[in-house]
Amino acid sequence: MGNREQEGMMTVLECRPLGYVSSCYRERFGIPRQPGLVTEARAILTLLPAYSGAELVRGLDGFSHVWLIFRFHATETQGWHPTVRPPRLGGQVRVGVFASRSMFRPNPLGLSVVRLDKVESGGGMTRLHLSGADLLDGTPVLDIKPYLPYADSLSQAEAGFAPEAPSRITVVFSVRAEDQCAREHDQGINLRLLVEQVLGQDPRPSWRRSDTDERVYGMRLCRHDVRFRYRNDRIEVLELVPVG
Amino acid sequence: MGNREQEGMMTVLECRPLGYVSSCYRERFGIPRQPGLVTEARAILTLLPAYSGAELVRGLDGFSHVWLIFRFHATETQGWHPTVRPPRLGGQVRVGVFASRSMFRPNPLGLSVVRLDKVESGGGMTRLHLSGADLLDGTPVLDIKPYLPYADSLSQAEAGFAPEAPSRITVVFSVRAEDQCAREHDQGINLRLLVEQVLGQDPRPSWRRSDTDERVYGMRLCRHDVRFRYRNDRIEVLELVPVG
């Protein structure tokens, strides 16, 4: 390995974006910690012209899911930390960055499997319609790979402190919020279900999760500021304020 | 997305190796096409000093499997192709590069889940002992992430032209090859099982796979040149020639 290793240590790999995601997640706060937890979260990956030839996605529509390797673009300038405090350990216990999916990594690479709803390609433009994504709007994507269950699906794998999906909290809607969801059929998105799935993750920082937390939170979701609070073991959706 | 996209299009992400893999695969020929198919393939990922603090892998030993994002270093100078001919389609049919796991990709990033047998860390050195890897010796690794079954395991995913693991071919050993395997207990590796698993993938190029193929092939595996041929629907291992 001698020479190759020496060369490798000197060289960096320059990765270029293949395209960008547009999604309903307009800010980091509230984004689920893993993909697939919020099935109603739709996103579109638009490839750049250099990667938009229809032949590049030939056969891709036979796959129900794809891997995206992406760049944690919004946080990468903050660098990385040797240890992180995962929310599921209450934010108190530190684990190594390589034992976590934290975005503050030596190389700011993210990995998500998302549902591929539709491949739209033609006229020099390719768009992948996705759901279950946990990607911030504007995320640059570095690679797309088909999900291969025979190689990628290991249901019996042991997963230390994260053996199962985080528990969900009950979400209730105020009359006002119910009315607002009913009026909005926000570009074909079931806004009520989206809000319920996103807030069911309890997006509050773990250090705020006490029974006496009375703060009103806001979260940007699609074209709304979703206002909510915690009360009696539930999340109450107060209202959805339209924003620019 | 306006400004962010503009910036993203201008900038490249510089990824640095975190460490290097040493494995029994000393050349591309014969490497299984996905990880996990050859469980006996052991590898060691040695992290570089900057990433070798014991705290970076704290808690990692609770996970049975990890994702590696790595660099297809041996082939990256060959660039990428819009379409590829997957071996499982007989090497005749072209599919888009994004519908394949081909190494000839716009960003030469590989993705493999491997079994984590042991985490060895201390004295400023960290080594991950892996099995089921499909990585060429010397592969630079760009990221390590824990495998999370609740997010990553999708046994029901549909996978187009690659719905299941490739079929295996029967492997038989000559008396000479049996003897050689019995004599070698190559650094704790079960060489016979490794050879059987690797050749069971039928590493011959798809365009050579005819019933009249009489060629004798050689494959570098650990410290051996494994000589084999195809006959009567089986792979015959002729001998294992030790090499430097």
- Main β sheet profile of chain A: 6 strands, antiparallel, barrel
Secondary-structure element order of chain A, N to C: HEEEEEEEEEHEHHEEE
Question: What is the helical fraction of chain A, as a range of percent?
Answer: 10-25%
If helices are DSSP runs of H or I spanning 4 or more residues, what is the number of helices of chain A?
A: 4
Low-confidence stretches of chain A: 1-9
Tell me what portion of residues of chain A adopts beta-strand conformation: 25-35%
Category by helix and strand content of chain A = mainly beta
Number of strands of chain A: 13
Question: What count of domains describes the coordinates of chain A?
Answer: 2
Global outline of chain A: globular
Give the C-level CATH assignment of the largest domain in chain A: Mainly Beta
CATH superfamily of the largest domain in chain A: YaeB-like
Question: Your description of this structure?
Answer:
- Two copies of one chain form a homodimer.
- Chain A is mainly β.
- The first copy, chain A, has two domains: 151 residues, Elongation Factor Tu (Ef-tu), domain 3; 73 residues, YaeB-like fold (2-Layer Sandwich).
- Chain A has four helices and 13 strands.
- Chain A has a six-stranded antiparallel β-barrel.
- In chain A, a hairpin with a 2-residue loop joins strand 7 and strand 8.
- The longest helix of chain A has 9 residues.
- Chain A is globular, with a radius of gyration of 20 Å.
- The N terminus of chain A is likely disordered.
